[in-house]
């Protein structure tokens, strides 16, 4: 039984400007409600709600979150903690994911099956790391090439692309391995917050991950660009009429 309020969404004229969306077919689903954080209250129920509404066969998920605010109980949250619950609703394989975070009055999650988008041409930073971190263990080298780079603080919001060479990098399960480790290595770009000097990855509002780009290699392509505050409000394309 489909959860009350969930809707399968077809193409509308106001969706024409959204990159990558086909012009002549149903594009996905909208699941209403404030998106739940992984590890938070109700996360298992949220996974089941998504699975029931959408099914389990979304191999190229493009996930758009609309939230009512960028803090929960006064604390910032990371887009990946929203994304975990969505990906856990789907079956393997998942070789790529695009996730976007907006603020709006009608919270929910839009889920589409679309081929991934790479980074734009005009990034603030782009680098290829031939041997990247595999886990967030203390004492690892990080990325020496960016160690002296200044914090990217022209805008609060940031977008991040990770393109892994290996085809076995965990995306759906086992996120707390190479993906998290590489993000943590980007402290020079993101900066830190709190007295514990945690990486300020809550600034990510657009996250794009791919794997299997070059199976005979061990590296990762990393690109970072700004998401200005003017682009934070949910566009009409992601508001149910």
In brief:
With 241 residues, the chain is of the alpha+beta class. It has four helices and 13 strands. The chain has two domains: 7-117, 60s Ribosomal Protein L30, Chain: A (2-Layer Sandwich); 125-229, 2-Layer Sandwich (60s Ribosomal Protein L30, Chain: A), CATH 3.30.1330.70.
List the helices and strands and how they pair.
Blueprint lengths: L6 E3 L18 E5 L10 H12 L6 E7 L3 E2 L2 E2 L2 H9 L8 E8 L4 E6 L11 E5 L27 E8 L13 H7 L2 H4 L1 E2 L4 E2 L4 E7 L9 E8 L14
Parallel strand pairs: 3-6, 9-12
Antiparallel strand pairs: 1-2, 2-7, 3-7, 4-5, 6-12, 8-13, 9-13, 10-11
Q: CATH class of the largest domain, anyone? A: Alpha Beta
Q: Report how far apart the termini are.
A: 23 Å
Low-confidence stretches: 11-26
Overall outline: globular
The average pLDDT score comes to 86
Q: Helix amount, in percent?
A: 10-25%
Largest sheet: number of strands, sense, barrel closure: 9 strands, mixed
Q: Secondary-structure element order, as H and E? A: EEHEEEHEEEEHHEEEE
Strand line-up across the major sheet: 1-2-7-3-6-12-9-13-8
Question: Which architecture of the largest domain does the CATH hierarchy give at level 2?
Answer: 2-Layer Sandwich
SS class: alpha+beta
Strand proportion: 25-35%
Rg measurement, Å: 17 Å
